[in-house]
């Protein structure tokens, strides 16, 4: 037992998150090199880093998917997940938080606080992760580090305190050292602020601090871990990953200050669904039942389906028989390994706290829990909140007859990213994929072409419009068909009611007296759902409505499932037409980083395209961030407009906010286009 405790105590897991271009991959490379895991430090510009091993990543010089890394240092085994920083790839970065104890948010000292830093700090807080801020590129020309630290504290809170400070081309420790100097001034003030912040979580240490005036940092490990768990302290570290400045000191922080799996907040496992779900406390006991969470799935043309796992309980062993979620048939873990970028390091087993990978298990899916006891089939992690994909692209294969293969391959790729969504447009028979932005979809198409050798034709980006109703209505339809032999008969009465925006679809069975036999109720629900998927007003899916079936008729001989599917479908369509249907459009949060002189022009452009400015905030000197809301449909050429307004100096990011009704003239155009298409069909 002692050996198991020592092994867990020697583990550290962290995810490098934050804006694109902040240097996360370079920092990962620097850590690997400083720990002796790689003989020489690679560079993103040269395309020889361990993390960015994909051909597209190397060509674009940006991380596009999360990469697993590990190294040994001072008796520790450290797992690192290097994540992409573009807002378009948030769906790759967020799941990494499910697998680690600490989120390390990397900032570019020149660019300051960017949208992805805020998003990832908020997400890490929501999931109960310890948070550390690393200010990278401190040796870049013209940086104002004291001003940036003040901005961090103003934005994220006074609990953001430096563990070290720049000093004479290096960094000076402020936690273990109580005296000394730095480029910011005396180390003593920074040390005192840290100790005061840490001891606040423990009354005994507060008394001791007030009486003695200081507490040796070496005795503050327990209250420090508590402060990190509670978010009472968010350490700030300084480094220049490319030159190695501050990297050894960061290794010391990982070693002495960051939590092991037993010191961090436990994962939020639940048993059951919805309001009935009960919290489950997992154990770091290597002898207990296996519970391992699949936080990411990757489609590999050679390895098949590749799953990234965090083992939370028990010991995962090669050739072990395990169940995948609710699956009743066990699967065998034939390929178990650690990943160093693309390099596979075979493993015989992985215990609690470890991050590993398994291959060639088609049953794997994102967010699945692998377990070895059937009674654990209802255990799952609390759902992860991810952005809603709203940029759409219609795809069709260049070769006739490849429609099913296109759907199958796209499904494999979409499964890797919770911020991608795949739909089959019934009216046009097109495959439509939705993502977070143009770059998101462009990279997806490049992977489709390069990895799976699949050529497609694309249509202009589609907006993910939706339909809903604004009034109560009833619908009735009798489906009767007679053609010589046995006929078809089904009759359905139902009512439709609007629900609050964002609450989804609800089906209710209020049939009494067996007028529709219980055996046919699933067919009725199928017809209702088919009608909602097709839409009624403009051909977009119906959302946020409640459909209640309350009456009907059947025939003892002629009633069949297909009859009730058809009757329910038609009844919904008739009811919705009388329920004052409206088309909804996605509204997105917009953040534009722009020169101060162009703020008025940018604000005016948003306003002229049905947007509204909600505020501004300071960015780096000479630039401001304009924040606002705008319909996604109005932002198709936004970057082009920004380039003209700011001489190419502005850039923007989007995040889904909510759905709102479109203007009446837009609704009329969409409905008319749908009617023309329907008539043509």
UniProtKB/TrEMBL annotation:
<dbReference type="InterPro" id="IPR000795">
    <property type="entry name" value="T_Tr_GTP-bd_dom"/>
</dbReference>
<dbReference type="InterPro" id="IPR041095">
    <property type="entry name" value="EFG_II"/>
</dbReference>
<dbReference type="Pfam" id="PF00679">
    <property type="entry name" value="EFG_C"/>
</dbReference>
<protein>
    <recommendedName>
        <fullName>Elongation factor G</fullName>
    </recommendedName>
</protein>
<keyword id="KW-0547">Nucleotide-binding</keyword>
<dbReference type="InterPro" id="IPR053905">
    <property type="entry name" value="EF-G-like_DII"/>
</dbReference>
<dbReference type="InterPro" id="IPR014721">
    <property type="entry name" value="Ribsml_uS5_D2-typ_fold_subgr"/>
</dbReference>
<dbReference type="Pfam" id="PF00009">
    <property type="entry name" value="GTP_EFTU"/>
</dbReference>
<dbReference type="InterPro" id="IPR020568">
    <property type="entry name" value="Ribosomal_Su5_D2-typ_SF"/>
</dbReference>
<dbReference type="GO" id="GO:0032790">
    <property type="term" value="P:ribosome disassembly"/>
</dbReference>
<dbReference type="InterPro" id="IPR027417">
    <property type="entry name" value="P-loop_NTPase"/>
</dbReference>
<dbReference type="InterPro" id="IPR000640">
    <property type="entry name" value="EFG_V-like"/>
</dbReference>
<keyword id="KW-0251">Elongation factor</keyword>
<dbReference type="Pfam" id="PF14492">
    <property type="entry name" value="EFG_III"/>
</dbReference>
<dbReference type="Pfam" id="PF22042">
    <property type="entry name" value="EF-G_D2"/>
</dbReference>
<dbReference type="InterPro" id="IPR009000">
    <property type="entry name" value="Transl_B-barrel_sf"/>
</dbReference>
<dbReference type="GO" id="GO:0005525">
    <property type="term" value="F:GTP binding"/>
</dbReference>
<feature type="domain" description="Tr-type G">
    <location>
        <begin position="9"/>
        <end position="262"/>
    </location>
</feature>
<dbReference type="GO" id="GO:0003924">
    <property type="term" value="F:GTPase activity"/>
</dbReference>
<dbReference type="GO" id="GO:0097216">
    <property type="term" value="F:guanosine tetraphosphate binding"/>
</dbReference>
<dbReference type="Pfam" id="PF03764">
    <property type="entry name" value="EFG_IV"/>
</dbReference>
<dbReference type="InterPro" id="IPR005517">
    <property type="entry name" value="Transl_elong_EFG/EF2_IV"/>
</dbReference>
<dbReference type="GO" id="GO:0003746">
    <property type="term" value="F:translation elongation factor activity"/>
</dbReference>
<keyword id="KW-0648">Protein biosynthesis</keyword>
<dbReference type="InterPro" id="IPR003593">
    <property type="entry name" value="AAA+_ATPase"/>
</dbReference>
<dbReference type="InterPro" id="IPR035647">
    <property type="entry name" value="EFG_III/V"/>
</dbReference>
<keyword id="KW-0342">GTP-binding</keyword>
<comment type="function">
    <text>Catalyzes the GTP-dependent ribosomal translocation step during translation elongation. During this step, the ribosome changes from the pre-translocational (PRE) to the post-translocational (POST) state as the newly formed A-site-bound peptidyl-tRNA and P-site-bound deacylated tRNA move to the P and E sites, respectively. Catalyzes the coordinated movement of the two tRNA molecules, the mRNA and conformational changes in the ribosome.</text>
</comment>
<dbReference type="InterPro" id="IPR047872">
    <property type="entry name" value="EFG_IV"/>
</dbReference>
<dbReference type="InterPro" id="IPR035649">
    <property type="entry name" value="EFG_V"/>
</dbReference>
């Amino acid at each position: 037992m002692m050996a198991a405790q020592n092994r867990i105590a020697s583990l550290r897991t962290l995810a490098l998150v934050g804006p694109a271009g902040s240097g996360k991959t370079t920092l990962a490379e620097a850590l690997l090199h400083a720990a002796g895991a790689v003989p020489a430090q690679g560079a993103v510009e040269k395309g020889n880093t361990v993390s960015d091993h994909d051909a597209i990543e190397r060509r674009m010089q940006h991380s596009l998917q999360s990469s697993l890394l590990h190294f040994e240092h001072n008796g520790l085994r450290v797992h690192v997940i290097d994540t992409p920083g573009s807002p378009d790839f948030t769906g790759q970065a967020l799941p990494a938080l499910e697998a680690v104890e600490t989120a390390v948010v990397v900032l570019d000292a020149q660019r300051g606080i960017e949208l992805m830093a805020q998003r990832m700090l908020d997400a890490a807080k929501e999931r109960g992760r310890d948070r550390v801020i690393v200010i990278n590129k401190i040796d870049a020309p013209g940086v104002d580090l004291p001003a940036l630290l003040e901005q961090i504290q103003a934005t994220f809170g006074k609990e953001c305190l430096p563990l070290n400070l720049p000093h004479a081309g290096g960094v000076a420790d402020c936690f273990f050292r109580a005296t000394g100097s730095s480029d910011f001034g005396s180390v003593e003030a920074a040390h005192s602020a840290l100790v005061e912040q840490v001891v606040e979580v423990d009354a005994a240490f507060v008394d001791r601090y007030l009486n003695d005036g200081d507490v040796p940092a070496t005795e503050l490990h327990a209250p420090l871990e508590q402060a990190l768990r509670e978010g009472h302290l968010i350490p700030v570290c300084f480094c220049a990953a490319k030159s190695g400045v501050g990297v050894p000191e960061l290794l010391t922080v990982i070693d002495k200050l960051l939590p092991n799996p037993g010191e961090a907040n436990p994962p939020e496992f639940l048993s059951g669904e919805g309001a009935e779900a009960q919290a489950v406390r997992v154990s770091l006991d290597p002898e207990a039942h296996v519970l391992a969470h699949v936080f990411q799935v990757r489609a590999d043309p050679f390895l098949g389906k590749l799953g990234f796992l965090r083992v939370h309980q028990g010991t995962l062993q090669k050739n072990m028989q395990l169940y995948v979620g609710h699956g009743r048939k066990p699967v065998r873990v034939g390929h178990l390994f650690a990943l160093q970028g693309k390099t596979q390091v075979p493993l015989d087993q992985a215990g609690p706290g470890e991050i590993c990978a398994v291959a060639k298990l088609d049953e794997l899916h994102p967010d699945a829990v692998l377990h070895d006891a059937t009674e654990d089939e209802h255990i799952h992690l609390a759902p992860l909140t991810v952005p809603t994909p709203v940029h759409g692209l219609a795809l069709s294969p260049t070769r006739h007859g490849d429609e099913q293969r296109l759907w199958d391959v796209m499904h494999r790729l979409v499964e890797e990213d919770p911020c991608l969504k795949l739909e089959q447009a019934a009216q046009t028979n097109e495959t439509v994929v939705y993502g977070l932005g143009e770059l998101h979809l462009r990279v997806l198409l490049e992977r489709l072409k390069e990895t799976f050798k699949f050529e497609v034709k694309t249509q202009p980006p589609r907006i993910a419009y939706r339909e809903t109703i604004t009034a109560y209505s009833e619908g009735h339809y009798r489906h009767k068909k007679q053609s010589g032999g046995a006929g078809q008969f089904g009759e359905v009465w139902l009512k439709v009611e609007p629900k609050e925006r964002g609450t989804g679809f609800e089906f209710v069975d209020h049939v009494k007296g067996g007028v529709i036999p219980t055996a046919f109720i699933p067919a009725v629900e199928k017809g209702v759902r088919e009608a909602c998927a097709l839409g009624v007003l403009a051909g977009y899916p119906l959302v946020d409505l409640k459909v209640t079936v309350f009456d009907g008729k059947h025939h003892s001989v002629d009633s069949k499932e297909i009859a009730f599917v058809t009757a329910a479908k038609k009844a919904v369509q008739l009811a919705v037409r009388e329920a004052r249907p409206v088309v909804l459009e996605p509204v997105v949060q917009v953040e534009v980083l722009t020169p101060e002189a162009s703020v008025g022009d940018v604000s005016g452009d948003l306003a002229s395209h049905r947007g509204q400015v909600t505020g501004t905030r300071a960015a780096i000197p000479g630039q401001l961030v304009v924040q606002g809301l705008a319909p996604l449909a109005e932002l198709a050429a936004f970057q082009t407009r920004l380039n003209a307004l700011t001489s190419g100096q502005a850039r923007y990011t989007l995040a889904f906010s909510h759905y709102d009704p479109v203007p009446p003239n837009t609704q009329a155009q969409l409905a008319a286009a749908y009617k023309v298409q329907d008539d043509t069909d």
